[in-house]
Amino acid sequence: MSTSTGTRGVSVPTVPSAHQAEDTAQTATTAPGTDIAALLERGRALSTPVLRAAVDRLAAPMDTVAAYHFGWIDAEGNPADGDGGKAVRPALALLSAEAAGAAPEVGVPGAVAVELVHNFSLLHDDLMDGDEQRRHRDTVWKVHGPAQAILVGDALFALANELLLEIGTVEAGRATRRLTTATRKLIDGQAQDISYEHRERVTVEECLEMEGNKTGALLACAVSIGAVLGGADDRTADTLESYGYHLGLAFQAVDDLLGIWGDPVTTGKQTWSDLRQRKKSLPVVAALAAGGPASERLAELLAADAKSNDFDSFSEEEFAVRAALIEEAGGREWTAQEARRQHAVAVEALGRVGMPEAVRAQLTALADFVVVRKR
């Protein structure tokens, strides 16, 4: 893995700025021939009917709670056209099947299974993190209570495995093994994330390992599971997983930037969201590792925050000060460049897999999209 991680004493401000990195990535997405919106919509259109049918299997009131989470109904149970997320994982699963020479429909059960596991993690994460908003709406635990958030999350995970195993083929068994392994790593990553909130210092290497588990593992599964269902051998699936893993690290690096500097109107989360939760995300960890006056002042403030009894009442200005110190120490710039590094490693992996050139171009374009997204 190409990490190029920062350590104390590294002069992080020498890397391109966040805006420069975004400009470079934006240029990459302008290549003709790939309609990202159409790819995402295809993934959503093919997977949503199967996803709805799976959710319909749940006992009441879990079916209703899940429908609310997915944006299909509002809090009163009325039909809604909510934001169902970016649908990157379903799009990857369908392209994965095509990479193996199969029809995109072959990847649909894998796409739905991965989406079910992803949403299982979101339901639990929102509760553990205390997040009250997701996709511009109150989270499930806020509307329906913590118990329902836990139960529905568990049910979605069970549904994911049920959906794959009932296909009854050898390939489905292989796909299920990859999904369960990815889920275990995802849970490992969430456990690491929570434990890091209570530590004064986390290394960049530890943060990358956590984010590789929490985000990289499931994206890696998404971009291999369709190929496995389509009959691809393990070498092909493993190489596609490498693409997905590094894409996941790029994805999470961008998420970390949005978690501090993202526009709440666009992200659907509070201002300074990750700082409010004391997350040791990449910008924070890189800033603390950089050394220098801003890094040292940031370390002092975060250490005091960990012992504060009135942290929840901090003003916007106090969070803004911390964000400014992270940027001054180079954490924002380093994270933007890390997203670009991981993007490059992901795209390089595609060159080691034989696949139709149109599919390779679409996977490359999706990788570009992940790095320049705003939410």
TrEMBL record:
* Pfam families (UniProt xref): polyprenyl_synt (PF00348)
UniProt GO MF annotations: metal ion binding; prenyltransferase activity
Q: Which GO terms describe its biological process?
A: isoprenoid biosynthetic process
Q: Which keywords does this Swiss-Prot/TrEMBL entry list? A: Magnesium, Metal-binding, Transferase
Q: Which domain of life is it from?
A: Bacteria
The record's annotation in PANTHER family points to: (2E,6E)-FARNESYL DIPHOSPHATE SYNTHASE, GERANYLGERANYL PYROPHOSPHATE SYNTHASE
Q: Where is this region: Disordered?
A: 1-32
Q: Does the keyword Metal-binding apply?
A: yes
Which protein family is named in the record?
Belongs to the FPP/GGPP synthase family.
InterPro entries, per the entry: Isoprenoid_synthase_dom_sf (IPR008949), Polyprenyl_synt (IPR000092), Polyprenyl_synt_CS (IPR033749)
| Leader sequence segment | none
Name of the protein described by the UniProt record: Polyprenyl synthetase family protein
